[in-house]
Amino acid sequence: MGPREIGSEGERERCVPASRVLRSVSADDNAGEGDGCHCLPGRFPVRRKDCGRGSPGLAPLDSPLVRLSHTTVCKNIIYGICLIYLQTQRQAGFSATTVRVLLSHASFDCGPGLFIIPVVKRAPSGSEQQLLMLVNERVKRLCQERDGIRLMEVCGTHTMAISASGIRRAVDPRLKLLSGPGCPVCVTTDAEIDTARKLAERQGLVVVTFGDMIRVPGSLGSLAEAKAEGADIRVVYSPQDGLKMAMAEPEKEFVFLGVGFETTAPTVAATVLAAAERRVENFSVLTMFKLIPPALEFIASAKKMKIDGFILPGHVSTIIGSKPYEFLVQRFGLPCCITGFEPADILEGILLLLEQLEHCPRLAIQYRRSVRPEGNRVAQQLINDIFEVTDAEWRGIGRIRNSGLRLKPDWQKFDARVRFGLRSARSSRPASGCRCGEVLLGLMIPSECRLFGRVCTPETPKGPCMVSSEGACAAYYRYER
């Protein structure tokens, strides 16, 4: 059986307990050394407390991973695969130093074995180095007349990419890159989690959800805890998977948790259409969708935020285009740039924002290979056909007018709130000491929270920002401790 990638973050965590590591194999250990930090895949030097050479600890979860499953394993074959994989990664631009092979106890004697082969430490490309130099030069020039510059990366994927690549530590410290409310799991309120949990406790009802939602704590506990207590909660990769389950088990009610932004809404809308066409009577959606532009209007209007510009989300903008953001420039005079997710994309986006600060604010599209001004009209039409705009609660912000989506009256037979008579609940106060709300608004960074890295970790999260793969706290914990 050939190599294949590991799936979810949760699966990675389960697969490589440090206690089951048998050995570490290094190839060309001395190549590319110099920063004393060989255990992370960041393009710029990244510090990490557990990066000791020769340590049998876990390899970083975001390293390139290969999973091999065999009933019988030959060490020579595995070593050969290591060398081949290392060679391919070098060709891809890694100045790779270490190949770590983690073998479970069961690897050689029985059952499928797990082999993790991370190849680490890709050097910054010439274009990235040049962009970084230009960014820092521009910051130095701008800060001759101002104390500092505060840019908000709205999207959680940007936050993770900035932390993983080391950009936040490589730029001039007077340039602050702040996380925003662009992580869909993070802005989901505890009241919404409680509603989903109460649904899951009903006899004969199945809650279907994306994996990130399973461990988000509500005031009544998480969905994972409800599942442990016997609730039927299933993780899927697509709402279509939930529809297929409903068709296969018509005796049960299936409720899909509609969490996300404008990126996710079209796929859920298409699933509702498919359910209607196939006359599936036991499938419904608990809508928790949020819309990005109204949240940005709230942030731009709040004087305490003091944001100098926005790194706008690439995925959402692929759907809605650039026009919905024009008010940020026209009404608030804020520089804006829709940016891609590679380090060079992000640095170029930052540079475009700095140029706007020096000259004149405008709405720029750096991510032109995916985003058009008009957006994806087919996806927009799907949203408009199935959903209507409504007010929504945001964690850390509260209720924002016209910032959510709900099913139109013609489609309410697929609305879980209508079908099961659910009431809209107001969010309760967050867990004691959790400051996810302030992190989502860029008012503080995760490490300033007294719970961060102490009682709040990915294993024992106190808030959603530590749970989600796009959460700011998770990004800081993994890459910036």
Explain how this protein is built.
With 481 residues, the protein is of the alpha/beta class. It has 19 helices and 13 strands. The protein has helices at residues 9-15, 75-91, 126-142, 156-165, 167-170, 184-187, 190-200, 223-228, 239-248, 265-277, 292-301, 314-320, 326-330, 343-358, 377-386, 416-419, 436-440, 464-467, 472-479; strands spanning 102-103, 115-116, 149-155, 175-182, 205-209, 232-235, 253-258, 283-287, 309-312, 336-338, 363-365, 387-394, 398-407. It has a 5-stranded parallel beta sheet with strand order 4-3-9-10-11. A 4-stranded parallel beta sheet has the order 6-5-7-8, sandwiched between helices. α10 (265-277) links the parallel β7 (253-258) and β8 (283-287). α4 runs parallel beside α19. The radius of gyration is 23 Å and the shape is globular. Residues 1-124 have low confidence and may be disordered.
